[in-house]
Design brief:
The complex is a heterodimer.
Chain A lengths: L5 H10 L6 H18 L34 H5 L20
Chain B lengths: L10 H9 L5 H19 L2 E4 L3 H13 L11 E5 L26 H8 L3 E6 L33 H8 L5 E6 L5 H7 L2 E4 L19 E6 L2 H11 L17 H11 L6 E5 L9 H16 L3 E5 L7 H16 L20 H12 L2 H13 L6 H24 L2 E5 L15 H5 L6 H6 L3 E8 L6 E8 L4 H19 L19
Parallel strand pairs in B: 2-3, 2-4, 7-8, 7-9
Antiparallel strand pairs in B: 1-3, 4-6, 5-6, 5-10, 9-11, 10-11
Helix pairs in contact in B: 2-3, 7-8, 8-16, 10-12, 10-13
The chains are: A mainly alpha, B alpha/beta.
Chain lengths: 98, 510
């Protein structure tokens, strides 16, 4: 049913923001093909009248009261950042040269 | 009693000794740290040892000395699966991307265990982000099965299972998304339970697949698991999927089940689809013996059919990667974790891509790519949509089964522990390890594994899985405690009594 090529993997890796190597793409193309063949089995038993379930226990959305609570101090929130200026996360350039 | 004997005691025995001031929590904690130092070279259950353990134990001792009532497990050491956030220890999910990360908060379940006077010994190994059935996908090397150090201790929670089976900790935290508590329990001869979804808070549990993940207890006997369960479960406002429900005491249920039995007139359902092809003969033989034992104790055995369980693994390996690919998007090299810059002029997207390439291992990449594919426009309905429909069908199978039976049983894993390296390069073979355990996660029901004997052909432990309806965790513990008592009576002791207590250092072990 599926025909996964290294080009498909390249596209997915770009969507998932993982800079896969060429070897990884080749291997994943083969493996994903086998996995998708196996999991495509789900289509054998589903008919349009079966509702979808996204969650094991039916729940309604839960809102907390709109009250101020203490969460994290700025220092703790920035403490694990790869880079910060002490008040904000510092990130690399958003746009490239072009 | 010599200090080295303490590590062979159960959590409830240790708690009693500590409460009666026969021994201090500090002594118990030191005995376990010594045991870890002795066997970790061969077992590698831990990724991090808590340097503050003895101090934490002394603080509990001081509270006990002042007469403070803390909890029934006060002073008992606990191992923590490294998927749970701890403010005083690195929390890595066994991934390079979180190497050395010390979170700014404790997981709610961890915080509750500290309040109850439990003493954290360290963080246990797992497959990276809990993706796997063997710990071979840990970025820090596999853990080893105490029964045979050439074999896997199961996964993802192989570290926690190996830690209790190797007497490095009496109890441990696990987490179970598709069997990560129960399958390791089965292959190491230990005990593990997955609560009803929402029974335990997921706040501070590093997310794999949010609609399936659940934290639960790992131990060497049912009562210890139940006592520990009572300590950390219950409603938490910080987890919007946490159930606000007045849970009965699991320890009370376990004690009742062991003392008075629970099988007379109980309808036990044997799931036809979970005892067929692909199950090792020794597993099937022990399971059939257990069914006879339960019958002799007054249980009514009902065969139940759950035709859609045959599709559960397929649906799971679509739903889990889909949720995981979204959950793991947070590792973006900005707020925490690894940052790898390919060059000085690299843009944030290039940095993100290089970081995730360097920081994630092969199984994590495989599942993120698979999840990204399953959620893509054009494929969404055929894959993810159908998988969600299968989830409904599995829930209906359980509803039908629980109309005929009070609890369901099956082997907890299709085979005994396999050899390290045997399945690591074959994703589908690895995924099929979970066929017995996945259905419970899809439906959110409580399920656990207790050891039922050693397989004839290889002498390795085999587990039986006990499943109950939503919120019937107490029934699960009660029946598990009865079965445990019946098995101990029949075999003249527990399975772990027969476990090796010293281990050969094998090549490749850290």
């Amino acid at each position: 049913m599926s025909e996964i090529t290294p080009e498909t993997i390249s596209h997915l890796a770009n969507l998932a923001r993982i800079a896969l190597t060429e070897e990884e793409k080749e291997l994943l193309a083969t493996q994903l093909d086998a996995i998708l063949d196996a999991v495509a089995k789900v289509g054998e038993v589903t008919t349009p009248d079966v509702p979808r379930t996204s969650h094991p226990v039916p729940l309604v959305n839960v809102f907390r009261n709109d009250e101020e609570v203490h969460t994290l101090d700025r220092e703790a929130a920035l403490g694990n950042a790869p880079d910060s200026d002490g008040t904000r996360f510092r990130v690399p350039a958003i746009l490239g040269e072009e | 009693m010599s200090a080295s004997e303490l590590v062979f005691k159960s959590a409830s025995e240790l708690a009693t000794l500590i409460r009666d001031k026969q021994v201090s929590s500090a002594e118990v904690t030191r005995a376990h740290l010594d045991r870890m130092a002795e066997v970790e070279g061969a077992i590698h259950a831990f990724l991090h040892v808590n340097e503050g353990a003895v101090d934490a134990a002394k603080a509990v001792d001081a509270k006990i000395a002042s007469g403070e009532k803390i909890s029934e497990l006060a002073g008992v050491p606990v191992a923590i699966k490294d998927i749970l956030c701890t403010v005083d220890m690195p929390s890595t999910a066994a991934s390079r991307i979180l190497e050395g990360w010390i979170p700014p908060y404790d997981a709610t379940v961890v915080a509750r265990s500290r309040e109850a006077g439990l003493v954290p010994l360290g963080k246990t190994n797992l497959d990276e982000f809990a993706m796997g059935s063997s710990t071979e996908f840990s970025a820090y090397g596999p853990s080893r099965n105490p029964w045979d150090t050439d074999r896997i201790p199961g996964g993802s929670g192989g570290g926690s299972a190996a830690a209790v089976a190797a007497f490095e900790a009496p109890i441990a935290f696990g987490s179970d998304t598709g069997g990560s508590i129960r399958q390791p329990a089965a292959v190491t001869g230990s005990v593990g339970f997955k609560p009803t979804y929402g029974g335990a808070s997921r706040f501070g549990a590093i997310a794999l697949a949010s609609s399936l993940d659940q934290v639960g207890p790992v131990s060497r006997n049912v009562l210890d698991a139940a006592l520990f369960h009572d300590v950390f479960t219950g409603y938490d406002a910080k987890d919007s999927t946490s159930l606000n429900y007045n849970w009965p005491s699991m320890a009370e249920a376990a004690r009742l089940g062991a003392k008075e039995g629970s099988l007379k007139g109980l309808r036990i359902g044997v799931v036809k689809e979970l005892n067929g092809e692909g199950f090792q003969p020794g597993v099937k033989a022990l399971f059939n013996e257990l069914v006879e034992l339960a019958t002799a104790a007054g249980a009514e055995i009902v065969e139940v059919s759950a035709p859609h369980f045959d599709y559960a693994t397929a649906a799971y390996y679509l739903i889990l990667p889909a949720e995981a690919s979204s959950n793991l998007a947070k590792y973006d090299a900005v707020r925490f974790g690894l940052r790898v810059a390919p060059n000085e002029a690299a843009t944030i997207e290039e940095v993100m891509s290089a970081t995730r390439e360097a920081g994630f291992g092969p199984e994590v990449k495989r599942r993120i790519i698979l999840g990204t594919y399953a959620l893509s426009a054009g494929y969404y309905d055929a894959y993810y949509g159908s998988a969600q429909q299968v989830r409904t069908l599995i829930q209906r199978d359980f509803e039908n089964a629980f109309a005929k039976a009070d609890v369901l049983i099956s082997p907890a894993a299709p085979t005994t522990a396999f050899k390290i390296g045997e399945r690591v390069n074959d994703p589908m073979a690895m995924y099929l390890n979970d066929i017995t355990t996945i259905p419970a996660n899809m439906a959110g029901i409580p399920a656990g594994s207790i050891p039922m004997g050693l397989a004839d052909e290889d002498g390795l432990p085999v587990g039986v899985q006990i499943m109950a309806g939503i919120k019937k965790d107490d029934l699960m513990y009660k029946v598990a405690a009865t079965l445990e008592a019946l098995l101990a009576e029949k075999h003249g002791g527990s399975v772990l009594d027969k476990a090796p207590r010293s281990y050969a250092l094998k090549g490749g072990a850290k």
